[in-house]
Amino acid sequence: MLEENISAISTPAGKGGVAIIRISGKNPLSIAEKMFRPVGKTKVSDFEPYRMYPGRIDGGNFDDYGLCVYFKAPASYTGEDIVEFQCHGGENVARGILKQTFRLGAKPAGKGEFTKRAFLNGKLSLASAEGIADMINGESDAEVKAGFLLYSEQLTKKVCEIQSELKTLLAGIDVSVDYPEEDVEEQHVAELSVELETLRSKILEMTATYAVGKKIKSGVTVAICGKPNTGKSSLLNKLLGYEKAIVSDLAGTTRDAVEGVLEIHGRKFNLYDTAGVRESGDKIENIGIERAESIIRSADVAVFVADLSEGMDEEDGKVLEMIKNKPLIKVFNKTDLTNDETLTDADVHTSAVTGQGIEKLKELLYEKGFGARSEDAAFLIEERHYEALTRAEERLRSAITACETQPLDLIGIDVKEAWDALGEITGETATEAIIEEIFSKFCVGK
Ligand code: GDP
Questions:
Q1: What is the CATH topology of the domain spanning 216-370?
Q2: Is the CB of 252 under 6 A from ligand 1?
Q3: Which residue in 314, 310, 388, 320 sits closest to 130, CA to CA?
Q4: Ligand 1 centroid to 231 CA: how many Å?
Q5: Average pLDDT in the 171-175 region?
Q6: What does the pLDDT read at residue 332?
Q7: What pLDDT is attached to residue 435?
Q8: End-to-end CA distance of the chain, in Å?
């Protein structure tokens, strides 16, 4: 496809060692010819692809020494010819060079436009493009890993296999509809039903991974609850390894829910320190308490913290009552202040001062959030993929039921709809609106 040249800075805004300006389109080399002077006698028009050439880059009002590389279509990221300049990583340096590419005819690239072109040129599937976004936005190793599996077309491969089998079944249905033979049809429907069931269970296997995949992407939400002054903020800080929450001796000072993101075995946990849950006449504190209650409602795991040196009382009981339906970890804190072992009903004894029990608390958090440790397999992490697979599974279920009572052509409609739903994942049947929405979440320059 011969598209107009687009260009953008591909490195993030701000100062850095190096910045990259990328031009993709029908003839980016003709722009490079006018703004890049290679060292020695080499001419830009003689550039070998995939080789770095040192030289002088024209930034409009200034020059910079840098590098230029040419990627030849179709063996490039976008599938088009690409030229990249590497210059010094000053914001004005990169911007000046970018502006020069505009002066020479390139258009500013929109959000994700390079990747969108790659998709439209068949370089990658829609799911793969989403994997790139997941890798870029990933806040934990597990999320980046899952993004890479998507990017490397693992999901697309599985989906395409199912689609191809559905296509074969559809072809068989078409033949039977066109050339009906009573006794052959009955056997055909029986076989068809079995094959549809096999494909359906393959889809179910995939959708079953979303429960974990969803948590990998958004993180496990943890509400740290307990009476004021039991050490919730201090424990949060100890878990995060840096001072985040405000720690104070005054009961009820943690008025806002403070969030911190913690990685345990490569997976993300969003920690919320709830305001001291207790009855209070203080208006601001009451707002904090309401917020705490709402955090507790949406939390995946609740951590209950009691002060070992003071023991448990009625107020602790009230907190426990609020979180009794949640996966719960009972923590008795401040072990450094007492040897009192009467409060034995704890999952872990901790000290935010000495760090005792913190590692065990992390292990318990992982266990409550994800269960036993497992390999990072190909989890579904995108809701869009989960929904499309669920729709495909529903259509197949309907087709299987239809096998008992309905004529073949009606069964065929369900099978075709299942195929279409799967095509949304790869992009084959995705609407322009879906495609637009996906690429609008990318940054400019990707
Ligand atoms: P919160 O109201 O539950 O968030 O409690 P804070 O984290 O603000 O802690 C209240 C007070 O207890 C502060 O003075 C902390 O320094 C102290 N504290 C917290 N955890 C421990 C601990 O494990 N041992 C000791 N000795 N003091 C602690």
A1: Rossmann fold (3.40.50)
A2: no
A3: 388
A4: 4
A5: 89
A6: 94
A7: 93
A8: 19
